[in-house]
Amino acid sequence: MDTLKNSCSNCDGGSEDGKRKSHHDDKTMQELVSRLNRIEGQVRGVKGMIERRVYCDDILNQISSVQSALHGAAMLLLEKHMKSCVTEQLQAGDEHVMDEVLKTISKLTK
C-alpha cells in the first residue's frame, strides 16, 4: 500500500500506525454504518434466496438492489471525501491528491 505523506493533518488523524484515517463527522459515519448494515442484511437475504432456490430473475433483481445500495454508499463517501480531505489537501498545495481521486473514481465507475 502507498505510504504517501498526507498534507492534510485532519485526514491522517495523527495516527500512531502511520496510516491515513478519515475525519468525517459522527453523523456521516453513522449514516455510512447504517447503510452498510442494511446492505449486509440484503446480501444475507440474497444468500437465503439462493439456498431456497428462488427464481433466478428475482435473485438478480435483489442483487441489482444491493449493487445500487453499495453505489449510493460509495457516492456519499466520495462526496464527503471531496469536500473535506481532498479540498484541504489541495489548499495545502498537495496536487497529488487529484491523481488519487481520479484513480478512485475510475475504479468506482467500472
Q: Could you please describe the fold and organization of this structure?
A:
- With 110 residues, this protein is mainly alpha-helical.
- The longest helix has 36 residues.
- Helix 2 packs antiparallel against helix 3 and helix 3 runs antiparallel to helix 4.
- The protein contains 4 helices and no strands.
- The chain is 72% helix and 0% strand.
- It has a single domain, classed as Methane Monooxygenase Hydroxylase, Chain G, domain 1 (Up-down Bundle), CATH 1.20.58.
List the helices and strands and how they pair.
Layout: H1 9-12, H2 26-51, H3 56-91, H4 96-108
Helix pairs in contact: 2-3, 3-4
Provide keyphrases for this structure.
Methane Monooxygenase Hydroxylase, Chain G, domain 1; disordered N terminus; 4 helices; mainly alpha; 110 residues; elongated
